[in-house]
Design the sequence.
């Protein structure tokens, strides 16, 4: 992700970091972390782009203005990871519910 675009547009529109953070709903340190690592969740990136009126695809164009596959692969992996965690969480909850049902059945 090319965070320089965000910075340039933010400055051109005279929006302070503090104001952008407030409108996006992130802390100043969160903003700095995104700037440093070039990583953020898609919701945060979408909010920043909406506020600054930036096409989100612009953040992943290289010097030749060719789209790169990095963001697609990155978010595909993030979604797979989230789904995996969700499935594990659901399985754990089901296990706990089954144990509770057994306890209740044994007390009858």
Sequence:
């Amino acid at each position: 992700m090319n965070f320089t675009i965000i910075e340039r547009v933010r400055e051109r529109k005279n929006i302070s970091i503090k104001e952008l953070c407030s409108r996006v709903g992130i802390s100043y340190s969160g903003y700095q972390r995104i700037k440093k690592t070039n990583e953020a969740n898609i919701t945060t990136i979408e909010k920043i782009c909406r506020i600054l009126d930036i096409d989100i695809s612009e953040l992943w164009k290289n010097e030749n203005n060719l789209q790169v596959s990095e963001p697609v692969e990155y978010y595909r992996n993030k979604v797979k990871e989230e789904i995996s965690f969700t499935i594990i969480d659901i399985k754990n909850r089901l296990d706990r519910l089954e144990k509770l049902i057994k306890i209740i059945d044994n007390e009858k």
Notes: Helices lie at 3-12, 17-24, 28-37, 42-52, 70-107. Residues 69-108 form one domain. The chain has a mean pLDDT of 85.
